[in-house]
Amino acid sequence: PRRRSPMERPLERPLERPWERIVVLTGAGISRESGLETFRDGDGLWSRYAIEDVCTPHAFHRDPLLVDRFYNDRRAELWRVRPNDAHLALARLEHAARAGEWDGEILIVTQNIDDLHERAGSRNVVHMHGELLRVRCTACGATPDWQENCLPQTPCPICHRPALRPDVVWFGEIPLHMERIQAALDRCDRFVSIGTSGTVYPAAGFVAQVRDHADTLDINLEAPAVPTAFERSMVGAATRMVPRWVD
Ligand code: BJW
């Protein structure tokens, strides 16, 4: 994105229409260099767990303890890590917009359930696959902060009914905030995908939805599986490529 120096800024800023609307889709690869595992890389989570054991509603129904342990282990990892230069660069871009140094807006649509974008300072973040540090009550719909565990027999702190589960989106469930995401995709000028394998829908289909009206860029350690899916790609580690793109 083109950043303008404050000197270039016109006086009538409020009347000016933002010239660039960016949607950034992030996946597990952006948090890899912070120390969190991806799913499908050789050493990823799916090399140690079977999807059908931990990542479906049926799995939680069958063995909630196993699923709870899977997420508790990942919570323990999350507390050990910090945002990296890629998270920080995206937060800088949002900050530049707030400070009036860049005429644009950025929405981060993340498939990640970690909170590293927020810890880096980003505010416009949508967690389409939920959040590790929240639980969801299947009775009243509340999503309170995670406390001790999220087993079906744990009482909800709001309605007190025993109906808690992790606030995450498993296979076969509908991702969260889809209306807001769809609206942002429909009006974006630029779509940037960072550190996602593009194998899980609906996120994998976003690039096709925006191609007729937005520039598309893929940033990944690997070249895109379908080379024609994106107009441009930057192949390399997110901590190196994202700051290069932002700054
Ligand atoms: C680096 C790097 C570095 C590494 N720097 N890069 C057939 C066709 C179409 C759809 C379906 C189908 N059959 C079934 C479906 C639906 C299904 C689906 O997509 N299945 C596919 C497997 C085919 N999808 C669903 O069920 C979804 N729901 C749905 O579709 O509902 C219908 C509906 C939608 C919309 C409106 C109305 C109705 C739900 C999907 C839920 C996914 N849940 C998970 C778990 C979340 C909780 C948790 O974290 O435990 O989400 S699965 C897992 O995969 C997680 C991730 O968010 C998601 C994507 O993974 P991600 O982030 O891409 O990670 P990896 O590991 O795959 O890739 C890492 C990448 O990083 C790699 O490319 C590396 O190269 C790169 N990398 N280091 C840069 N340093």
UniProtKB/TrEMBL annotation:
Per UniProt, Zn(2+) binds at: C137, C140, C156, C159
Which cofactor(s) are needed, names only?
Answer: Zn(2+)
What residues bind NAD(+), as annotated?
Answer: Q111, N112, I113, D114, G195, T196, S197, N220, L221, E222, A238
Q: Which Gene3D superfamilies match?
A: SIR2/SIRT2 'Small Domain, TPP-binding domain
Give the CC-aspect GO terms.
cytoplasm
* Cofactor: record remark: Binds 1 zinc ion per subunit.
Molecular function (GO) terms listed? histone deacetylase activity, NAD-dependent; NAD+ binding; protein-malonyllysine demalonylase activity; protein-succinyllysine desuccinylase activity; zinc ion binding
| Top-level taxon in the UniProt lineage | Bacteria
Q: Which residues are annotated as active site?
A: H129
Quote the subcellular location field of this record. Answer: Cytoplasm
Q: Which reaction does it catalyse?
A: N(6)-succinyl-L-lysyl-[protein] + NAD(+) + H2O = 2''-O-succinyl-ADP-D-ribose + nicotinamide + L-lysyl-[protein]; N(6)-acetyl-L-lysyl-[protein] + NAD(+) + H2O = 2''-O-acetyl-ADP-D-ribose + nicotinamide + L-lysyl-[protein]
Q: Which Pfam families match?
A: SIR2
Does Lipoprotein show up as a keyword for this record? Answer: no
Provide the alphabetized UniProt keywords. Answer: Cytoplasm, Metal-binding, NAD, Transferase, Zinc
Annotated residues for binding of substrate: Y71, R74
Metal-binding recorded as keyword: yes
Q: What EC number(s) does this enzyme carry?
A: 2.3.1.286
> Record's family?
Belongs to the sirtuin family. Class III subfamily.
Q: What is known of its domains?
A: 2 residues (Tyr-71 and Arg-74) present in a large hydrophobic pocket are probably involved in substrate specificity. They are important for desuccinylation activity, but dispensable for deacetylation activity.
Protein name (record): NAD-dependent protein deacylase
Source species: Gluconacetobacter diazotrophicus (strain ATCC 49037 / DSM 5601 / CCUG 37298 / CIP 103539 / LMG 7603 / PAl5)
Chain's gene name: npdA
